[in-house]
């Protein structure tokens, strides 16, 4: 049969609406529940344990040969209990689940302190090049010169951008970078015989990782108060200096989105007292390319490649936390690190004189997050020194614009300009019956990921908004209009909009208390589940 | 700059709204001495995609990709065939470009996959409960050690000589600063008796590995009982998760905490990272666990949903009293793991594990038939150790010069007298008969 083109009048598709009414008849009642459980494009989901089967697989493998095993009597007899899905089922399962996620690619994600900026796809493409992705960490160094080249070039960028002496690339995430910096400080103190210095000063506005890290390094934490302007209270700091102080952990710009004006004085005070200055670099995006932490007296600082240098957050990692070190701490870096040999080739130093690794040792197997190094280096090469500077400026400008536009409706926590994030407290919600949490959940209905809430702890009902440089002015204006609308609604007494929110998300507000009271942390067959409930 | 949407006129309007004359006015809190007057020197300026890609491609070309040559490296990282759909799915914008699921109503995709991941890991390792991932196997091992000290309120740690040296050192770094005393046993292919003998009334845990760094399989069931009878915990470490498709999982041997590397399911070699640490334990220790946990709950309508839970263990709530400082973990690598595991299922995993074991058996036969090469592992999964008549690092270099990546010399992990000639050789389902023949030929030539 020959094919012919459709001619006018042919009923080739069920699209001929001529003469038929297309408008829905008005329905004032609630939307009916569907028989399938779907809500239009939002498909129902189930757990793989409910749809998969123990004897199904979505991977075709060559037949086994029946070689005699050498398992030493340790052959597994039990089932893992893990069901399999065919490929089409698996793809559909994960695509449906993905549609229940919000993401920076869908809209603005102003989660303060998290720097949710655009993740360039060139970075993804480069990270998958076989010379980076398909290389084993223990291949002979002669066969991994390109991978070492990435590490070497990334190190150059990080050292130059921060004005520091050295960088330890291996920390796996920000908190691991904190651990690296604090362990370097401990190693330096121990080397000087200053083993009595065990007190670390941490501002009360710090990320929770700071005190947790200090304790993991065997230090004790001493909190410093915040001054009324949201910065470190210098007089409180002075009273806490002493013979036993190992150092300070200070975020700059701090978690209130403010630059610590007295940072040089703080550095001098801590150094004069015999301690070291650890800077939490979580907020480096505000100043990258404009200010070098080395010029501020910093001894160690981790850099979240997954924030400032845009390696994707991936729903909670992987991160990467290279830690830059000052002259004083550079000798105490962990292994491994890259060195250039006399012939210009690159080498890896993986061992220290003592095979058990004094004074610092090793934090991790292998060399850290190579996949993040390639993405971050691609970001840096794309932006250049000029683009990185411009990005910081735009990030700061965007935050200040949001603050300026919202301050009539919400209450900024502090006066004056901010850095890359704008902090509000909840005093403007007083008497409305709406909490910061309720307000955040209503933002979900507006199609925005909420800002960071209830952090930093020094501000009541904190709302921390970080737009990043990735947002256009039009995008910010739309966000501001939405926030303004919500603020007015809260003040006008439209409380159900908030207290019952979210209404338009794939699920309604989830009961987190119940989850913690009776933890269900893995799937169990329904029979077993009812038995557990009965117990 | 293609990633920056603001135009010069946008910037002007926005500065006016803020009420400042220039961008400099927003940086006045920076001490004058630290304000730079232009872009930082010694760094290039912005480049287009083409130029950047050319630069990176050149670097990539300067490495030998594992897939381009006969390849036998393991020792903690394994090359497996990952289905194309895995990498496609993890690059879905909604998975790739989202944050930790702090707002669960708009992150059900992430939290449910973590719940499924935990369930799969618990099933794989035969443990009561698994967390939502750690950075990698070595840091999971380190966290297990300090957790055991919390549980037992004791301060001594015993490391088996069969533990991966990088794991031992990473754990030692964390443990020594937590005030723990380290008893590292001499490097040995098997040492259960010595491990047990080292346990005293102050021992918090012993750390053993199966398959261990030499590939050897050991049943720790009796050791676990004996260690527990002395009030200490047994931590079982592994570096090759595929093994548990074929060998007895650590939970069935009675391990109290299981910590290991999940890279070999769903994740590429990536020159050492990012990987995904697996961490599991008994129900009774769940509140001492580090890391995130996804749990089931219901929403306001009674519909099932998932949230991060038991966060009172964690740093953002407990600060200096947290069980760990970990925050960001390995979410996307855990996603790759769970998708690959879902495609495999129990049936596919067992099949895959058998193929690995067969490839290793054939490789072991080919290599140990070479005169002067001694097979050191009686039992193994997909990796084994041999003693060469020559220095193993030199042999590996010589093989690399002939385009064969013939394994990992033990000395690369730890420089230890008596182990200079020990070579670790791994084979997987990606290993072909030609690869094995090529390895045997090349090894024969270089020793």
3D structure, described in words:
The complex is a heterodimer of chains A (about 525) and B (about 450). Chain A has helices at about 50, 85-100, 120-125, 130-135, 145-160, 175-190, 210-215, 235-240, 265-270, 370-405, 435-445, 475-490, 495-500, 510-515, 525-535, and strands spanning about 165-170, 200-205, 220-225, 245-250, 275-280, 300, 325, 335-340, 345-350, 410, 420-425, 450-455, 465. Chain A is an alpha/beta fold and about 525 residues long. The mean pLDDT of chain A is about 95. With about 450 residues, chain B is an alpha/beta fold. Helix content of chain B is about 35%, strand content about 15%. In chain B, strand 2, helix 7 (about 165-175) and strand 3 form a beta-alpha-beta unit. In chain B, helix 6 (about 135-150) crosses helix 7. In chain B, the strands form 3 sheets. A 7-stranded mixed β-sheet of chain B has the order 1-7-6-5-4-2-3, with helices on both faces. Chain B has a 4-stranded antiparallel β-sheet with strand order 10-11-13-12. Chains A and B meet through helix 2, helix 3, helix 4, helix 5 and helix 6 of A and helix 1, helix 2, helix 3, helix 4 and helix 5 of B.
Average pLDDT across residues of chain A? Answer: 93
Tally of distinct domains of chain A: 2
The H-and-E topology of chain B, N to C, reads as HHHHHEHEHEHEHEEEEEHHEEHEEH
Low-confidence stretches of chain A: none
Report helical residue fraction of chain A.
25-40%
Quick description:
Chain A has 535 residues and is α/β, with parallel strands linked by helices. Chain A has helices at residues 48-51, 87-98, 121-127, 130-133, 145-162, 174-191, 209-216, 234-240, 263-272, 370-406, 436-445, 473-491, 496-499, 512-517, 526-534, and strands spanning 166-168, 199-203, 220-224, 245-251, 276-280, 300-302, 323-325, 337-340, 346-349, 411-412, 422-425, 452-453, 463-465.
């Amino acid at each position: 049969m020959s094919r012919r083109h459709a001619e006018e009048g042919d009923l080739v598709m069920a699209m001929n609406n001529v003469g038929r009414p297309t408008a829905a008849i008005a329905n004032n009642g609630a939307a009916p529940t569907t028989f399938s459980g779907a809500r239009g494009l939002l498909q129902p989901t189930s757990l793989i344990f409910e749809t998969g089967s123990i004897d199904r697989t979505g991977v075709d493998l060559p037949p086994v040969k029946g070689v005699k095993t050498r398992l030493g009597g340790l052959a597994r007899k039990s089932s893992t209990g893990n069901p399999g899905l065919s490929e089409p089922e698996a793809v559909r399962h994960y695509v449906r689940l993905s549609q229940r996620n919000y993401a920076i690619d869908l809209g603005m994600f102003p989660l303060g302190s998290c720097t949710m900026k655009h993740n360039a796809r060139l970075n993804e493409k480069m990270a998958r090049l076989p010379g980076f992705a398909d290389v084993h960490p223990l291949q002979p160094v002669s066969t991994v010169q390109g991978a070492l080249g990435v590490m070497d070039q990334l190190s150059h960028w990080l050292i130059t951008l921060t004005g520091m002496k050295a960088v330890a690339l291996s920390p796996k995430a920000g908190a691991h970078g904190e651990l690296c910096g604090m362990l370097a400080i401990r190693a330096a103190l121990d080397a000087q015989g200053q083993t009595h210095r065990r007190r670390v000063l941490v501002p009360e506005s710090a990320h929770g990782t700071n005190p947790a890290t200090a304790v993991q390094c065997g230090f004790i934490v001493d909190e410093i108060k915040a001054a009324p302007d949201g910065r470190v209270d210098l007089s409180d700091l002075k009273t806490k200096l002493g013979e036993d102080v190992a150092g300070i952990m200070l975020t700059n710009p701090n978690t209130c989105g403010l630059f610590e004006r007295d940072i040089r004085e703080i550095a001098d005070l801590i150094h004069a007292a015999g301690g070291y200055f650890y800077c939490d670099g979580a907020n480096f995006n505000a100043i990258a390319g404009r200010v070098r932490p080395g010029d501020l007296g910093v001894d160690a600082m981790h850099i979240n490649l997954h924030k400032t240098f845009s390696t994707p957050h991936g729903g909670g990692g992987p991160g990467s936390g290279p830690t830059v070190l000052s002259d004083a701490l550079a000798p105490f870096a962990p292994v491994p690190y890259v060195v250039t040999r006399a012939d210009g080739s690159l080498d890896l130093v993986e061992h220290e004189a003592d095979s058990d690794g004094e004074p610092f040792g090793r934090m991790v197997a292998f060399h850290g997050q190579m996949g993040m190094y390639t993405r971050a280096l691609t970001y840096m090469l794309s932006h250049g020194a000029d683009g990185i500077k411009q990005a910081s400026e735009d990030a700061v400008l965007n935050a200040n614009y949001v603050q300026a536009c919202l301050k009539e409706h919400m209450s900024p926590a502090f006066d004056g300009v901010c850095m890359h994030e704008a902090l509000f407290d909840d005093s403007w919600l007083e008497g409305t019956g709406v909490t910061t949490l309720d307000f955040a959940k209503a933002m979900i209905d507006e199609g925005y990921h909420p800002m960071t809430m209830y952090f930093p702890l020094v501000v009541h009902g904190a709302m921390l908004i970080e737009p990043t440089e990735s947002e256009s002015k039009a995008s910010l204006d739309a966000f501001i209009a939405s926030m303004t609308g919500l603020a007015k609604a809260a003040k006008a007494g439209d409380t159900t909009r908030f207290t019952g929110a979210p209404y338009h998300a794939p699920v309604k507000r989830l009961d987190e208390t119940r989850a913690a009271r009776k933890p269900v942390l893995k799937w169990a067959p329904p029979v077993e589940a009812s038995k557990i409930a009965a117990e | 700059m293609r990633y920056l949407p603001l135009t010069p006129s946008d910037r002007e309007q926005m500065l006016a709204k803020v009420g400042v004359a220039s961008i400099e006015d927003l940086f006045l809190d920076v001490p004058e001495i630290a304000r730079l007057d232009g872009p930082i020197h010694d760094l290039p300026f912005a480049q287009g995609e083409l130029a950047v890609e050319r630069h990176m491609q050149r670097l990539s070309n300067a490495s030998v990709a594992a897939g381009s040559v006969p390849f036998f490296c393991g020792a903690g990282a394994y090359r497996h065939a990952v289905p194309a759909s895995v990498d496609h799915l993890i690059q879905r914008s909604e998975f790739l470009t989202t944050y930790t699921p702090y707002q669960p109503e708009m992150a059900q995709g992430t939290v449910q996959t973590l719940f499924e991941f935990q369930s799969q890991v618990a099933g794989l390792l035969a443990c009561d409960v698994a967390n939502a991932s750690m950075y990698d196997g070595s840091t999971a091992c380190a966290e297990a050690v300090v957790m055991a000290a919390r549980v037992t309120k004791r301060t001594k740690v015993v490391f088996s000589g069969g533990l991966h040296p990088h794991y031992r050192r990473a754990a030692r770094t964390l443990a020594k600063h937590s005030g723990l005393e380290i008893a590292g046993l001499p490097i040995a292919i098997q040492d259960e008796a010595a491990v047990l003998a080292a346990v005293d009334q102050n021992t918090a845990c012993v750390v053993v590995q199966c398959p261990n760094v030499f590939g050897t399989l050991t049943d720790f069931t009796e050791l676990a009982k004996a260690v527990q009878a002395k009030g200490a915990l047994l931590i079982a470490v592994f570096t090759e998760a595929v093994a548990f498709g074929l060998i007895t999982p650590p939970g069935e041997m009675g391990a109290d905490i299981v910590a290991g590397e999940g890279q070999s399911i769903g994740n590429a070699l990536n020159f050492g990272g990012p990987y995904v640490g697996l961490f599991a334990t008994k129900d009774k220790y769940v509140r001492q666990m580090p890391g995130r946990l996804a749990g089931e709950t219901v929403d306001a309508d009674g519909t099932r949903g998932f949230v991060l839970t038991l966060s009172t263990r964690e740093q953002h709530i407990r600060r200096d009293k947290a069980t760990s400082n970990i925050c960001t973990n390995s979410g996307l690598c855990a996603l790759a793991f769970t998708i690959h595991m879902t495609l495999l299922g129990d049936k596919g995993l067992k099949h895959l594990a058998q193929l690995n074991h067969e490839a290793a058996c054939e490789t072991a036969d080919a290599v140990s038939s070479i005169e002067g090469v001694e097979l050191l592992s009686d039992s193994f999964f997909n990796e084994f150790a041999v003693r060469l008549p020559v220095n193993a690092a030199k042999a590996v270099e010589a093989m690399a010069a002939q385009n064969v990546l013939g394994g990992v010399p033990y000395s690369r992990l730890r420089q230890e007298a008596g182990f200079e000639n020990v070579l670790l050789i791994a084979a997987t389902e990606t290993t072909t008969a030609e690869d094995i023949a090529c390895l045997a030929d090349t090894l024969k030539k270089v020793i």
